[in-house]
Amino acid sequence: MNKANNFQRIRDLNYMQKAALAGAILERMLPNYGLFSEATGFGDESLLRIALNVCWEKLLLPISKISLEKQIEKVEPNVPELTDFEMFGTYLAIDSATALLGYMHGLMAKDEQEFVSIAKISQATVARYVEYLLESEGLEPDNKLVREHPLMQYEIEVLGEMIDYVENMGRITSESVRGLRALAVQDGQTNIGLELNEQ
């Protein structure tokens, strides 16, 4: 399944399906932030984790009084500045935090485009990481090398599987969301193939 296909399939989903899928993609991105935070001592991954959990709650109970504005205020100071850190993981942390903020804004504004963007950010994160790996092997990364790299192929495959699940999940319930979240992390790794510390 090619990349364009996946994105077209995401656009064809309804609002709730897009929102659920975006949350699942974030489940695979967020641990990258934790690895950066561990390495640098910057930021509090638990605040991002709580914010994503709140998003799931909001998705299941749209009329709840949960304040996403408060979560945004807590997450924003935890977005690292690229210029403050000389390590590749900074890009991954920025992508994770930015995607999470976009998710919250999307839920608040009921803006489906924000949810589509999260899939694009995740894929861009993988592409950047693949380029970094290729360069460290002394190779000049081009589109073909990046696209055919096992990590990118795997990202496309996992996204396709999650889209399949969302297309078939019917009504969004706590049970179907639990299944989707489990599917997102069942391989025990982040979107760039780093092992999750805890399952």
UniProtKB/TrEMBL annotation:
InterPro entries: DUF416, YP001051499.1-like_dom_sf. Pfam families: DUF416 (PF04222). It comes from the Bacteria. This is YjaG family protein. It comes from Pseudoalteromonas fenneropenaei.
